[in-house]
């Protein structure tokens, strides 16, 4: 306890304490029929990537939230994961610093690198939970029905011979993830919209959609 309550560790200890408070509140509110998770998901907007999004701070934030799987995994789980990752990683760094240097580093000095280390942990948990949530949805339906859909590149850059991950939602609101690859020398970057035109094994061939295609898929 003495180690946890030292000045250099208070920021990370607070993150863990906040995580515990959220867990307790979620349990209590679930008993009365109102969950924090549902309230938080309803308050947050849908973080779909948009090909027309300007390369600005707002666009960068939306891409980051999409990378962390916001909108695909309950936001409360991602928040709790961040708090746990931030708190434990910070305490481990401080423990290592104390054993090596004999004293704790200032919290403000450790906070930024620890923050950056916590983000991949959130994404890892988001990816794991997304697989459970989505499962094998793309295999549960006829993949030929995906032809003509407009998807958004979510991970990677799609070039000839190098597919990238894309996602789209069908008319039932189900999210599907597919690997896409363009023909010729066209390149599609993260956040760009593509039209699925042909299935090629595990991948789909895509082209750049026209305004008519975008309208038809709304």
Structural class of the helix and strand makeup? alpha+beta
- How many E-type strands? 5
The poorly predicted ranges are 45-59, 135-140
Helix content: 40-55%
List the strand order in the largest sheet.
Answer: 1-2-3-5-4
Written account of the structure:
This protein is an alpha+beta fold and 218 residues long. 49% of the residues lie in helices and 15% in strands. The protein has 7 helices and 5 strands. The protein has helices at 10-31, 36-43, 57-67, 75-101, 107-134, 137-140, 211-216; strands at residues 150-155, 164-169, 175-182, 193-200, 203-207. Strands 1-2-3-5-4 form a 5-stranded mixed beta barrel. A hairpin with a 5-residue loop joins strand 2 (164-169) and strand 3. It is elongated and about 65 Å long. 24% of the residues are buried. The model is unreliable at 45-59 and 135-140 (pLDDT under 50).
Could you provide a short overview of the structure?
With 218 residues, the chain is α+β, with helices and mostly antiparallel strands.
Write the layout of secondary structure elements.
Blueprint: H1 10-31, H2 36-43, H3 57-67, H4 75-101, H5 107-134, H6 137-140, E1 150-155, E2 164-169, E3 175-182, E4 193-200, E5 203-207, H7 211-216
Parallel strand pairs: 3-5
Antiparallel strand pairs: 1-2, 1-4, 2-3, 4-5
Helix pairs in contact: 1-4, 4-5
